[in-house]
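quick one, 311 residues, struct below
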Amino acid sequence: MSPLIQAQNLHRYYADTHAVKNISIELHQGEILGLLGPNGAGKSSCLQMLCGVLAPAAGQILINGLDLLDQPNQAKQLIGYLPDRPPLYPELTINEYLNYAAALRRVKKAQIKSLRDQAMQRCGLQDVGNRLIGNLSKGYQQRVGIAQAIIHQPDVIILDEPTVGLDPIQMHEIRKLILELGQQHGVILSTHILPEVQAVCNRVQMIHQGHSVFNKNIDELTQNNQLNLHLQQPPAIDEILKLPGVQNAEVLSAGQYLLKGEELHLSQTDISRHCVEQNWGLLEISLKQNSLEQIFLNLTSGEDKHGEAAA
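---
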């Protein structure tokens, strides 16, 4: 299946500042991509180029096969966008605002009510349609912002900081909504909340100083070459080094080890069986998990900032 977004070799300048440097972004249906980076990294420029708000100095953007530069009207119909500040009118009711948003998206008049009701249902707004937007809580205003982004049923949904300023309950509700949207659409989520990325995203792409420095699936954050091992009756370290696939072992504390070896995950079952047979009192054996926060800090403050080698 071809990507919903295929952006290749994007560049963007602001006067003499090269803000986006040869960045490529892909998004597939059913995927939620977390786009991360510190302030000034080039994230917002990338999002605005993907939405057709900014033109790239170089590069190509295809939205479900349509060239965003050559066929802007058709391509933009496939995109729903929620900026970091939702474009809301506080003096309108939710129904009035969504009718207006649908008209802007050139939804046929006969379909507006049906599509509005569907968007409100998906965003949990079906019982508050007659309320003024200005009287809504921050969480409900974010829901309205997402509703306007999906009212025309786009293939691609781009959300910029959708949970900023929300309380924990509101954040949980918006995250649940994003997961639901990701089942039928392709979603790009830009946020500074790293636990949010791990909670909802399938893939993470990090941008730093205009470069793409990391692009991996969430499940790849699990290292296949390191195991955490915790034993109740630990043997001598020489015995640990004889375990299948183990090339090196580090003692973390009494009975706790960090085992290292190439593709050590393939030996996990054999190691578990051996520990049980030797009556070492196996308490835990697990693949080591990378911290997304630590990866982010390493890539945005370490020496190697312009390639995935630092990952």
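Residues 160 and 244 are 47 Å apart (CA to CA).
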